Structure formats: structure tokens, C-alpha cells
Amino acid sequence: MQQFAFLAVAGALALGGCTTVSDEPADNCRVLESEGWAANVASVPGNPDRNQLTVTGRVTMPTPAYTFAWEAGRLDRSAVPSFELRLLATPPDGMVAQVLDTSEVTYTGPAAAPRYSAITVTCEGRVLARIEDVG
After folding, report:
1. Where does residue 41 rank: exposed (0-12), middle (13-18), buried (19+ CB within 10 A)?
2. Of 20, 78, 114, 126, which sees the most CB atoms within 10 A?
3. pTM above 0.85, yes or no
4. 126 membership: H or E segment, kind and range
5. Any bridge partners for residue 14, and if so which?
6. Which residues of 3-115 form beta strands (DSSP E)?
């Protein structure tokens, strides 16, 4: 009977050893930290009837050489709208140094309004920043 108990404990330990615990975040966004977010709306040089939105910030990634792109998200239809801007981070191909890397990211595009109540910067559904009263 002792041998059976030993085998049962050994089997449980072996199965427990097969459990994988990941340090990866639950979401797919690889941004480890973000800071220094700012946004402003300015008229387009030479065309004062058109405005452009600029959003800047810094993101820390798990390795260098990520590339970044932006995707427009929701824009509500209020008089002073809020806007979601999605940061798309693409990891590098091949071997890279395993060091943290902080990069400046900038979005510049047409402004839908002369002022925004807020700009929310997201990455894979996670909010990186909420910039209030942008004008």
C-alpha cells in the first residue's frame, strides 16, 4: 500500500511539473511601460481650415527593433469628441538583444475636430494612456 501511495504522489508531482507558467502578459500587447503622453491639435501650414492631430509618448518594449504603426479607433459624435488611437507594435524578425528598449512613438493625422475631450491610446485592447482636454 505504501508503494501505491508513493506512486500516486510521484504521479501527481510529475503532472504538476508539466504545468506551464508564463511570465507573458495575459493580453497580446508587448508594451511593458509607457509614459510622457501628450496630444495637440494644430492647423495645417498653408491651410488654416484643416487641423492635424499629433500624439506622442514613450513605450518600453522587451527587445529593441520593434516597429510601430497606428490605427484609428472609435470617435464619438459629441460636440467635443473623444477618440481612440490604437498602437500596433510588431516584433523584430530574427535574433535581437534581450534588453529593454524605450522608443518614442508619434502619430500625426487629420483631426476630426478642433478639440477633443480625450484621446485614449490603446494597445491590443489595453489602455496605455488617456490624455484629457486636447485642443
Report:
1. middle
2. 126
3. no
4. strand 126-134
5. none
6. 33-44, 47-61, 67-75, 82-90, 101-110
